[in-house]
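The methods section describes the discrete structure representation at length, but only in general terms. An entry of this sort, consisting of the sequence and the corresponding backbone structure tokens, reads as follows.
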Amino acid sequence: MAEDNVKIMVFGAHPDDCDIRTGGIALKHAALGNQVRFVSVTNGDAGHHEIGGV
């Protein structure tokens, strides 16, 4: 059974983790009209400095 108004929250240790690991599926759900939120649980000083998010 399909549900309307799906809300997705993705947690990552670093600011780029959510983008790199779940960016594609997040984009798919956003295009379907679902709410997608990324949450970083650090202040950002430990993320990768060469690989940016989407």
User: Anything to note?
Assistant: The mean pLDDT is 83.
